[in-house]
Structure formats: structure tokens, C-alpha cells
Design goal:
Layout (H helix, E strand, L loop, with lengths): L3 H5 L10 H22 L2 H10 L2 E4 L11 E4 L9 E5 L7 E4 L2 H5 L11 E4 L6 H15 L3 E5 L4 H8 L6 H19 L1 H4 L4 H4 L5 E2 L6 E2 L5 H12 L5 E5 L1 H10 L4 H4 L3 E5 L11 E7 L3 H7 L6 E3 L15 H6 L2
Parallel strand pairs: 1-2, 5-6, 5-9, 9-10, 10-11, 11-12
Antiparallel strand pairs: 3-4, 3-6, 7-8
Length: about 325
């Protein structure tokens, strides 16, 4: 029988929260974020478009019971590590999924070379919300759009628990950034959850000693987007909603001038500082969008529209991303 002294003599690794223990918790929280995506993203329009083509969207990992030809799985359990979705509203296949950044960038894989537009939904959004935003953009622009689905890990859980839906930059740099470094040292197995997409990014950062992938620009999505913009010279349009706008702002902050010069940045429901010398900014903020105003930090939008924060076209006073993107 062990004494209290025996427990103090055990290696610290014996007390580490294991990956298998944390993954169900992460998946559960990600499922809750999927529910939030129904409120803030145009999921009904996305689903209608696919059902018209005989494709059912599965977001609960269950049998749909629908006599359809195919099923597109965008569930929380399938996408906890992050991915890149190429959404094409006009042509099949309407949804293509990449779980590796290098594969997406490979010219032979028909990923990055098919798109010149990338969209980023709010931080914590699921694959469903990311796909719905990209569907709106693809509908407006008449071409494929790549959506970055953020990975979701322990550092993100801590951020969300502390109110990370608000004040993205403060939480990212003063809480989330140190938390990820601390977790990478004391619980490397659990800290690696939600980092698989980031780990496939060329030149990604690693924590000293444990080699756990860590981000350097406020979030893993910002690091992924930054790497894509440096590698894929054909990408010239960035679309962000809510905290996704801030993800874009962080990703382009230290890009070389020759990369910035080609970029058209469009944001919805959050206004970023226009410090980066890009080709053009078009930022939209709703006159009834208190959440967007809070996260904008006093930055002024080029376009004020009579909407609130949601892009769900079934919601009253929603921000119509497809209409606004098409007109600008």
C-alpha cells in the first residue's frame, strides 16, 4: 500500500491528463459550438443546397435515415483537430476536406490551386459553421472558397471558459498564449489535442523539449492562414466573420509587402485595424451588432449595415454575406 510520500516520489508524467481522457471533453464542447453555429451561420442555406444535389449533411454522427446518394460528415467528432474545406456551391464535389496543410498546398492535389479566396469563421466554430460561411462566399463569387476549420484544444477550452468569446486579442496574448506554452510542458499528450492541422503547417512552431505544436499568431488558424498565404500566391481574397476577422488580422500582420499587395480583405461582424498595407479593405459592421462592436476595439468600418451579428438568412436583420460580398 502506497503512502503519501510514495505519491510525491512518482514521476510527474504519472499525473498527466492523457489524450484519451481529454478528447471526449473537447468533442463535447465542439458539439455545443456546432449548436451555436446554427444561430450565427447560414446553415439552412448550406444544407438546402446540398440536399438539392442529393447530399445530406451529417453533424451528429448518426444515421440520417434519408434516401440520399451521399453523406457529408461535418460532425464535431470527425473534425476536432481542424481541417481545410474547399466549398464549391456551383460544382461537384461541393465539399472537399483536407486534414493536412502540405497536401492542400500540393499542386497535384487540386486544393490551394483551385481557390483564390479563403474564409474564416468565428473562433471556436465547428466545421458546419465554417462550411456555411464559405458556401455563402462561394455563392456570391461563383467560385470555390477554402474554409479554415480551427482545431480545438485545451488552450481553447480555457479561453472559452474565461469568456474568450469577447476580447479575442487580450485573451489570445495574455491568457491563451501562455496557457498553451504551460500545457505543452506539463501535459504534452493532452496539449497536442486539436493541433494536428497546425502540425502539418510548413515550419510550424514547437514547444521546447516536448515538441508539441504551438501557435505564434494568437491562434492555430492564424498560423495556418499565414503559411498558406506565403505559399499560395494565387490567394487574393480573405473573408472573415466575427473572430475570424481577427484571425485574418493576426495572420497578415507580418506578411511581406509583396504578399500583402494582392490581398482584398473583407470582414463581417468585426472590424480589424487596417495597419497592414493590403490592396483593399471592405469591412461591414451591423448597426445592431453589439458583439461585433465590442470585438472591433473601436476600429471603424467602411460599411455600416442595418443588421445584427448573425449571417443566418432565416434570422431577422441578419448580415447577408452573399449579397454584400457580391456587391463589393
Amino acid at each position: 500500500m502506497r503512502t503519501l510520500l510514495d505519491y510525491f516520489m512518482l514521476p510527474l508524467a504519472n499525473f498527466e491528463v492523457q489524450r484519451a481522457q481529454i478528447e471526449p471533453v473537447i468533442a463535447g464542447l465542439r458539439f455545443a459550438n456546432t449548436m451555436i453555429d446554427f444561430a450565427f451561420y447560414d446553415v439552412p442555406a448550406f444544407r438546402r443546397g446540398l440536399v438539392h444535389e442529393g447530399i445530406e449533411v451529417d453533424w451528429v454522427d448518426g444515421e440520417t435515415g434519408q434516401p440520399l446518394r451521399e453523406q457529408t460528415n461535418l460532425s464535431a467528432l470527425l473534425n476536432p483537430e481542424g481541417s481545410i474545406l474547399v466549398i464549391d456551391a456551383a460544382n461537384a464535389p461541393h465539399v472537399r476536406r483536407f486534414i493536412n496543410v502540405e497536401t492542400f498546398l500540393d499542386p497535384a492535389r487540386d486544393g490551394a490551386r483551385r481557390v483564390d479566396t479563403i474564409s474564416v469563421s468565428g473562433v471556436g466554430s465547428s466545421a458546419l459553421g465554417s462550411a456555411a460561411l464559405a458556401w455563402n462566399a462561394s455563392t456570391a463569387l461563383g467560385k470555390p472558397v477554402a474554409a479554415i476549420v480551427p482545431g480545438y484544444g485545451l488552450a481553447d477550452v480555457v479561453q472559452q471558459a474565461l469568456g474568450g468569446w469577447f476580447g479575442f486579442e487580450m485573451y489570445s496574448y495574455w491568457i491563451k498564449q501562455p496557457v498553451q506554452e504551460w500545457l505543452a510542458q506539463i501535459a504534452p499528450g493532452a496539449a497536442s489535442v486539436g493541433r494536428r492541422l497546425l502540425a502539418t503547417t510548413p515550419g510550424h512552431a514547437k514547444a521546447p523539449g516536448t515538441q508539441v505544436p504551438v501557435f505564434r499568431r494568437g491562434s492555430g488558424s492564424s498560423d495556418v492562414l499565414h503559411a498558406i498565404l506565403k505559399a499560395a500566391r494565387n490567394v487574393d481574397t480573405l473573408i472573415g466573420h466575427s473572430k475570424g476577422a481577427l484571425v485574418i488580422g493576426n495572420a497578415i500582420a507580418d506578411l511581406p509587402p509583396e504578399h500583402l499587395a494582392r490581398l482584398h480583405v473583407m470582414t463581417f461582424g468585426c472590424v480589424v485595424g487596417e495597419d497592414a498595407d493590403v490592396k483593399r479593405y471592405d469591412q461591414f459592421l451591423g448597426t445592431f451588432d453589439a458583439l461585433g462592436m465590442l470585438n472591433s476595439g473601436g476600429n471603424q468600418a467602411e460599411h455600416r449595415v442595418p443588421t445584427w451579428h448573425s449571417t443566418n438568412t432565416q434570422s431577422s436583420l441578419s448580415m447577408r454575406v452573399a449579397v454584400l460580398a457580391r456587391s463589393h
